[in-house]
Design brief:
By secondary structure, the chain is an alpha/beta fold. The protein has nine helices and ten strands.
Length: 288
């Protein structure tokens, strides 16, 4: 038995050393290329820009940030808008990949202002955490300059990564409400799930710490999350929701994954959004 242990121990030690070295190397790689593991932009002309004509009266927007970056956006006006949604999208693709959702919301009486973060689509620059927060503020400020947008009827919309942007903007700009979809509590929480065998969360410079910021947000909140989300588990959405104070609602989309919430949710999904909006902006009573 002792002889067997003597022969086995060196191999076990080599395997352990190799495993520790591999963990160290991968952790170092993730630290060096952190932004590349968080942001996955598609630059123009990648996308489905050619189908933008399917949105009536859509117009290009050019938005200047406080640090001089020019962002590209689209504004899709509704005929009789309930509110204007300022849409901060997820970490992959660009605004054109959200085209059909924009049209669906416009059809249901919402103005939609969607923009690309720096480094995405036709926007200048390269994305990082501070930069995308700046982009969100710039989009909100741009909306205030538009004559066909009521500044008192603005709802922040954040999907996935965009949820962190929307929460940050809500701490600094006077939105009437906020809709968060398939989003998360913090970058560290996501890292623990995405890389369970690597100590990445200890070294992340990117915080995206919505769970702390949302404690200071007092506007009404609607959260949407699929119960089969394979990228951002619904538990991370719940954690963020639980940290929020004030008027709030959590709407679970049965059977939805991360990127198909509105398709799986169907009309009930849009009904939840409209109900939330009408609680903020009740229709005027008609005289009898």
């Amino acid at each position: 038995m002792k002889a067997l242990l003597k022969r086995t121990f060196p191999w076990l030690r080599k395997i352990l050393v190799a495993a520790i070295a591999a963990i160290g190397v991968w952790t170092l790689i993730l630290m060096i290329f952190e932004n590349q593991f968080i942001f996955f932009p598609s630059k123009y002309p990648d996308g489905i820009y050619q189908n933008s004509h399917t949105i009536p009266n859509i117009r290009d927007c050019w938005i200047k940030t406080e640090d001089g970056i020019m962002l590209h956006g689209w504004f899709a006006p509704a005929d009789s808008p309930v509110a204007t949604l300022i849409m901060s999208h997820g970490n992959a693709g660009n605004l054109s990949h959200r085209l059909y959702l924009v049209r669906a919301l416009q059809r249901r009486d919402f103005n939609v202002l969607i923009y690309d973060y720096r480094g995405y689509g036709r926007s200048e620059g390269s994305p990082d955490e501070a930069g995308i927060y700046s982009d969100g503020r710039a989009a909100f400020d741009y909306a205030l300059t538009q004559p066909d947008i009521d500044p008192h009827r603005i709802i922040l919309w954040g999907s996935s990564l965009g949820g962190a942007v929307a929460v940050d903007v809500a701490t600094q700009r006077p939105a009437a409400g906020m809709i968060l979809e398939a989003t998360f509590s913090s970058a560290k929480d996501v890292a623990r799930i995405a890389y369970p065998f690597l100590p990445v969360h200890f070294f992340l410079k990117t915080r995206l710490n919505s769970v702390e910021k949302i404690k200071g947000v007092r506007i009404p909140l609607l959260m949407l999350h699929g119960n089969r989300d394979s990228i951002i588990p619904i538990g991370l959405g719940r954690k963020l929701y639980d940290a929020a104070d004030g008027s709030k609602e959590f709407y679970t989309i049965e059977g939805a994954d991360h990127n198909d919430t509105w398709l799986v949710g169907g009309e009930a999904y849009f009904d939840a959004i409209r109900r939330f909006s009408l609680t903020l902006f009740p229709p005027a009573k008609k005289d009898r």
